Amino acid sequence: MARPDFDILVVGGGSAGLTVSIAGRALGMRVAQVERYRMGGECLGTGCVPSKALLHAAALAHAAREAAEAGLVEADPAAPIDFGRAMAHVQAAIETIAPHDSAQAQGRRGIKVFDAHATLLGGGRVQVGAQTVTARHIVLCTGSRPRIPDVPGMDQLVYHTHETIFGLTHLPGQLAIIGGGPEGCELAQAFARLGSRVVLIQRNRRLLANDDEEASALIRTVLEREGVTVLTSALLKRVVPSDVHHARLLHVDVNGQEHTIEADAVLVAAGREPVVDGLGLDEAGVKVGPDGIVVDAYMRTTAPGIWACGDCVGPYRYTHAAETQGRQLVRNLLFPWKMRPIDLRGLPWATFTDPESAHVGLTEAAARSKYGKGAIRTVLLPLSEVDRAVCEGATDGFVKYTLRGQKLVGAQVVAPRAGELIQQLALLLHQRLPRHVLESAHVYPTYSYALHQANDRANYVRRSESRVWSFTLRVLRRFALGA
Amino acid sequence: MARPDFDILVVGGGSAGLTVSIAGRALGMRVAQVERYRMGGECLGTGCVPSKALLHAAALAHAAREAAEAGLVEADPAAPIDFGRAMAHVQAAIETIAPHDSAQAQGRRGIKVFDAHATLLGGGRVQVGAQTVTARHIVLCTGSRPRIPDVPGMDQLVYHTHETIFGLTHLPGQLAIIGGGPEGCELAQAFARLGSRVVLIQRNRRLLANDDEEASALIRTVLEREGVTVLTSALLKRVVPSDVHHARLLHVDVNGQEHTIEADAVLVAAGREPVVDGLGLDEAGVKVGPDGIVVDAYMRTTAPGIWACGDCVGPYRYTHAAETQGRQLVRNLLFPWKMRPIDLRGLPWATFTDPESAHVGLTEAAARSKYGKGAIRTVLLPLSEVDRAVCEGATDGFVKYTLRGQKLVGAQVVAPRAGELIQQLALLLHQRLPRHVLESAHVYPTYSYALHQANDRANYVRRSESRVWSFTLRVLRRFALGA
């Protein structure tokens, strides 16, 4: 066999593809990457980056209103907000970050980028646009796309997804959001703060269904307080596009009762589906399951020499999950005699509402069903007992530890900086450190100090319940103090 | 000898005293605490809590101005700020937190609190107000007070310290702050944002002299941009109180040139000195050094049965340092046959300006002088390359790692959430974890992701400089890829 054109050919230019191509290239491999649409993928152009930028603009407007309402600044709390400025900030953020992920930047790293569509031809050959390219390893990083609810009228409705919503030039007066996961909650808060009347329609009985129950309840309370109408256990039945004032009607079933929601814009944020069509996967022997491309623990597909990672695989569709998979994949590809399985057990995630909601490990419910109800206890420290939160008037939130005996098996944090706090707990779980390391010095008064406080509370609860501990203490006191 | 009245008598009701008394009591000991002024100490009443609350009010006012300036909200960027509201917020925060630290709360925990002055009488006896109390162990937690510069005119000047500044009812038009450490920098920013013209007078050649140089430079830039006049290498020569408009004149020598600063309020934030007077330390045989009460690694003073911790000891005068010492002290007191020395090597600290500046481990300069210039290298990741910071327009900042070989020996973070980020690095240093644990998944796009990015950069630099690595890679590629 002739020497292949490349060591690795990466299909897709999003987070997973960028990780694999850059890591592969850094390790000296000859790498090519195919992207038919836009480098940087969903995360940069239409996902994490624009949503965080919009949330920032909304937070700034919210702070201005808060300062006026509290009488701290002499201003009108109802002062108009310039939506165009908010959107300009979003575009500026994308444009600042884009060059890092561009084909030019990849070129400078020594990665050949094809602006084309890729189809697997089998035997290490890939149809890239008009040409055929050969590679020793093919890595599929084709990503995901929004899942569109299959209800009557949907095909006639003009709706937004994250792919188009950041192109809005006018603030929707009434915005209906279908889906109450991280994306739905974040954008509900952002648009409500910018002045839209928002209705959030969630199929599950609670928002943020992957987080602990308390987080779902609190984020709901916060959104409702900011004017968002939240419907849970709400099943979209049918939609009626309309030309009158561009209004749309959504018919939603909530516990058997039909609600009709009028909206002049609709955002679909109801989950994602893997992009697996038009790639020639079947012909190449790459099996696809309900969640996406089927891979083993080493990120190998069912076809030899073909790997996959990121959103087209799952189960977690996060940028950092894609990156973690991509890194392990490249290691496995380079050290085939010493492959290591991917371990996503300590993978944290966060929703960037204000307050943020972040999770790592098992939820309480998952822990109870895994280890038995009696084996699990939880500790909850409300932010009202955390001094920094009191100083900042930001006491909506908590730190919750789910413990199996003394061991931390999961944590949920809702706090203004929860996304940062969860990282220390993720390190603890990932490195299998004992919980008592949280007794080490935590800077006072940070939000992180709450992690330390909650740990003390867990110890205290344990001690006050333990007879062995009481007895040991009595002996100790007698010995040390003669008391 | 008769049974003493208490197992532990704690002198002082601040952070150190609260930690020792609560921990001692939780372990079943009979604990008394003497506080002559106010429970909660400096931290609650006049230190960390009010400064963080004032910074929050100032940040809110700043955000409102920023929103108006950017045209996001239709409002006047120069809208007046109500200083009374800001101060009301400060008092509310103190009042919310105070009950946790109160004599009543201590009483409910089973701790006897004396509202009195304490004097050591020797032999486990302490004069508490009018009575004599005996205790098996005495723990000195007397704290510290502001150090007042000894210059001509100072004794006639009416000036503020942190003990009085939060009682202000009117915003000073022109505020001079003596001291450019954490307290000086935080309050300079807070008052400038609330509308004062602030002059910050720092004796050292840079602000935040315990942090890395880059942090000093950046915090200076930020303060200057917000209108603060920063004088470094500035020696206060004399002060002239005046009655005309309540103005004060400060004569300052900057590199041999005399400057005259007019101010209608002066804040002294020029370091702290331990409270060691009037306690009968000499008579009881407790030695006092230039930094405070002399203790060994186990927190024992030079007199048997007398311990000390917190600000009256040093070297770090932080709430969380006092707490760390206090916890270790109680353990050592209860397990005298298994005492452990205090280890403050991984102790992080933070300055809560916006952006925050946080440090752990050695500074670059300290590392170079300890290990030799050539043994140390640094990696610096500017926040302009961190996506979340770009989304929030908060790119003033960086993550800096100081490395000895591959090992992290110190870190400096300047970022909006640096106080939280430093905690993960503190855990790493405290637990002596290898740096590569930072390769684990970090939620995207958090600020913590920058820690992960900076670690990648450190790896990349190492690889690109290493011939052994290049050779190993070449072999690996040949073996794995036949390339």
CATH architecture heading of the largest domain in chain A: 3-Layer(bba) Sandwich
**Number of H/I helices of chain A:** 15
In round numbers, the mean pLDDT of chain A is 93
In whole angstroms, the N-to-C terminal distance of chain A is: 84 Å
Q: Structural class of the secondary structure composition of chain A?
A: alpha/beta
Oligomer: homodimer
- Rough outline of chain A: globular
Largest sheet of chain A at a glance? 7 strands, mixed
- What is the CATH C level class of the largest domain in chain A, in words? Alpha Beta
Beta-strand segment tally of chain A:
21
Low-pLDDT segments, ≥5 res of chain A:
none
Estimated helix fraction of chain A: 25-40%
Number of domains of chain A: 3
CATH fold-level label of the largest domain in chain A? FAD/NAD(P)-binding domain
**Beta-strand level of the residues of chain A, as a percent range?**
15-25%
Q: What value does the Rg of chain A take, in angstroms?
A: 25 Å
CATH superfamily of the largest domain in chain A: FAD/NAD(P)-binding domain
What does this 3D model show about the protein?
2 copies of one chain form a homodimer. Chain A has 483 residues and is α/β, with parallel strands linked by helices. The first copy, chain A, has 3 domains: 6-39 and 102-145 and 273-338, 3-Layer(bba) Sandwich (FAD/NAD(P)-binding domain); 154-271, 3-Layer(bba) Sandwich (FAD/NAD(P)-binding domain); 349-468, Enolase-like, domain 1 (2-Layer Sandwich), CATH 3.30.390.30. Helices cover 36% and strands 23% of the residues of chain A. The first copy, chain A, has helices at 15-26, 41-45, 48-69, 83-101, 103-108, 162-165, 182-194, 213-225, 281-284, 319-334, 364-371, 387-391, 418-430, 449-465, 467-481; strands at 6-11, 31-34, 112-114, 118-122, 125-128, 131-140, 144-146, 174-178, 197-201, 229-231, 234-241, 248-254, 257-263, 265-268, 272-274, 306-308, 349-351, 356-361, 376-382, 398-404, 407-415. At the A-B interface, helix 3, helix 4, helix 10, helix 12 and helix 13 of A face helix 3, helix 4, helix 10, helix 12 and helix 13 of B.
